[in-house]
Design a protein that fits this description.
galactose oxidase activity; 573 residues; six-stranded mixed beta sheet; binds 2-acetamido-2-deoxy-beta-D-glucopyranose; Immunoglobulin-like; single chain; Methylamine Dehydrogenase, Chain H; Ig_E-set; Aldehyde oxidase GLOX; oxidoreductase
Length: 573
């Protein structure tokens, strides 16, 4: 992969100075940021489909799909295959692909075949590394499909059949500590269910989704769902949230509405992340949720009348385990609706893609926001945002962004039309893939960048909970030992501006020792429980002065997971 030439930064001189300075001083955070605004790289001019849903798998390949009722895509199915689906709405006999597997390391893609409509669906990767995708539209609304990663070209989607009890269109999935997933909401579904199912009837009412439903417009679809460290789920829809115990079907806590009361969920689509989880050995974890952007109340109706209202420029942040939680408001450098929020390996958040006006929906967005914004959660309020360099490609409705193991962010999609439209429209269907490289990847920081040499969690060996983990790494410059950390990031299922199952854990109790010239060991403790880190694959990073190493795939697994042993549907764990 060729990297375009990098701009040089004067900050590097300053950097060296700071390093000398801080090497002699105990310090915690410094101003030695990887300044520079990041870099865009066009990876593929066309992958033949539009990247509307994306999931990175533990073999560094990304499963991407759009929908089967978009019309003919620009990519043929392999080996002359065609889909003959009498219940299909647009083209019943379709020889084009609506899903691809993108190989990050080789920068290549190949067509995959989905059988039923996967439009606006959800998914999660289960502990054995398979993607279990749930729901969709029309003949796909109750379907469950499985993609098992392979290293060759012989794996494809397997349709499990009607694995869901209710129609799940615009629902959110979250992986649970026992290896199942919970699927919450969807259009006109004020309930949730589990996959694999727990017991009949497997549909449980969730009045919160009814209460947050703005009649005729909704504003509560694709709820933002996060697993709290206590095993409960934080569920956000419209402009407020609950803490929910899915084992007893009880609301444990009700959070206030975000000041201003404007909606943040589809189609007034903002985005949200669970900020990095730290001090994992503490009895109560200070989990924080950050919700950014969206559209002011009434925007959707105004768009129908031809007025594109400016998007929200605020973020709201809340400590979800506080006795009296309240939203703290912050202002972004730009207004944004349909942005994607992605955790970066160093704990910062990238806000990327989207529009400055309008809402989600066909033809309903205007003013593409080409500049990503970086958010540094640990900085002082008022100085957390930093505008990044712009892309040249608008990424409007149905665009996506996910973190890759090497620290880049894969960006794709954008199709605000009912079918593929390449000409005569404001925002043509985007078939391209780009990568955004945050400035921590700048070669100027190579001497600060850790390289993982070996780890007790290397390939093939699972790590357990609450255990010591040793990572050996190399840094060519002199390191600042108390500015080294180890993070673990769960790859996300991204669609409609939300990254399901995305979480980052900062592994604590770190102890750094010098092993040899430029070689160090860091010992940390793995997360104490599956409530904090559900079993499965994570990308493990060593971070030094905000510069992350390339990630290492690790698998955390508990022998206690119920579904490893019990469920035949999950027997391949
Ligand atoms: C996709 O196909 C259409 C026509 O079938 C063509 O106009 C368009 O240029 C193609 N787009 C890309 C990016 O290949
Ligand atoms: C598609 O399937 C139908 C039966 O459902 C069949 O009648 C038809 O011939 C098939 N079309 C093609 C092109 O194979
Ligand atoms: C849209 O236009 C109609 C007709 O002019 C008007 O009655 C309605 O109030 C408008 N709605 C909004 C949200 O502006």
């Amino acid at each position: 992969m060729s990297q375009p030439s990098m701009p040089r930064y004067t900050s590097i001189i300053f950097f060296l100075f700071l390093q000398l300075f801080f090497a002699a001083q105990p310090c915690h955070r410094t101003v030695t940021y990887a300044a520079g605004g990041g870099l865009w790289q066009l990876l593929q001019n066309s992958i033949g489909i539009t990247a509307m849903h994306m999931q990175l798998l533990s073999n560094d390949r990304v499963v991407i799909y759009d929908r089967t009722d978009f019309g003919r895509s620009n990519l043929s199915l392999p080996d002359g295959k065609c889909r003959n689906d009498s219940s299909e709405l647009v083209i019943k006999y379709d020889c084009t692909a609506h899903s691809v597997e993108y190989d990050v390391l080789a920068n290549r893609f190949r067509p995959l075949m989905v059988q039923s409509d996967v439009w606006c669906s959800s998914g999660a990767v289960v502990p054995d590394g398979r993607l279990i995708q749930t729901g969709g539209f029309n003949d796909g609304e109750r379907k469950v499909r499985i993609f098992s990663p392979c290293n060759g070209a012989d794996c494809d989607w397997e349709e499990v059949g009607d694995g869901l009890k209710a129609k799940r269109w615009y629902a959110t999935s979250h992986i649970l500590p026992d290896g199942r997933q919970i699927i919450i909401g969807g259009r006109r579904q004020f309930n949730y269910e589990f996959y694999p199912k727990s017991s009949a009837p497997n549909v449980y009412s969730l009045p919160f989704l009814m209460e947050t439903n703005d009649r005729g417009i909704e504003n509560n679809l694709y709820p933002f769902v996060f697993l709290n460290g206590d095993g409960n789920l934080f569920i956000f829809a419209n402009n407020r949230a609950i803490l929910f115990d899915h084992k007893t079907n009880k609301v444990v806590k009700t959070y206030p509405a975000i000041p201003g009361g404007d909606p943040r969920s589809y189609p007034s689509t903002g985005s949200a992340v669970l900020l990095p989880l730290k001090n994992l050995q503490a009895s109560t974890i200070e989990a924080e949720v950050l919700v950014c952007g969206g559209a002011p109340k009434g925007s959707f109706a105004k768009v129908e009348n031809g007025t594109f209202v400016q998007a929200l420029d605020t973020c709201a942040r809340i400590k979800i385990n506080d006795p009296n939680p309240r939203w703290v408001m912050e202002t972004m450098p730009t207004a944004r609706v349909m942005g994607d929020m992605t955790l970066l390996p160093n704990g910062n958040v990238l806000i990327i893609n989207g529009a400055g006006a309008g809402t989600a929906g066909w033809e309903k967005g205007r003013d593409p926001v080409l500049n990503p914004v970086l958010y540094r959660p640990d900085d002082a309020s008022g100085s957390r945002f930093e505008l990044q360099n712009p892309s040249t490609i608008p990424r409007m409705y149905h665009s996506t962004a996910i973190l890759l193991r090497d620290g880049r962010v894969l960006v794709g999609g954008s199709n605000p039309h009912i079918g593929y439209e390449f000409t005569g429209v404001l925002f043509p269907t985007e078939l391209s893939l780009e990568a955004f490289s945050p400035s921590y990847l700048d070669p100027n920081f190579d001497d600060l960048r850790p390289t993982i040499v070996s780890s007790s969690a290397s390939e093939g060996k699972n790590i357990g909970y609450g255990q010591k983990l040793l990572v050996r790494f190399k840094v060519t410059s002199k390191i600042v030992t108390d500015m080294v950390s180890v993070t673990m990031v769960a790859p996300a299922f991204n669609t409609h501006s939300f990254s399901m199952n995305h979480r980052l854990l900062v592994l604590g109790n770190e102890k750094v020792t010098v092993v040899g010239t430029s070689i160090y060991d860091i010992q940390v403790m793995t997360p104490p429980s599956g409530d904090l880190a559900p079993s499965g694959h994570y990308m493990l990073y060593v971070v030094h002065q905000e510069i992350p190493s390339e990630g290492l795939w690790v698998k955390i697994l508990s022998v206690k997971e119920k579904y490893i042993l019990v469920s035949t549907e999950m027997a391949r764990w």
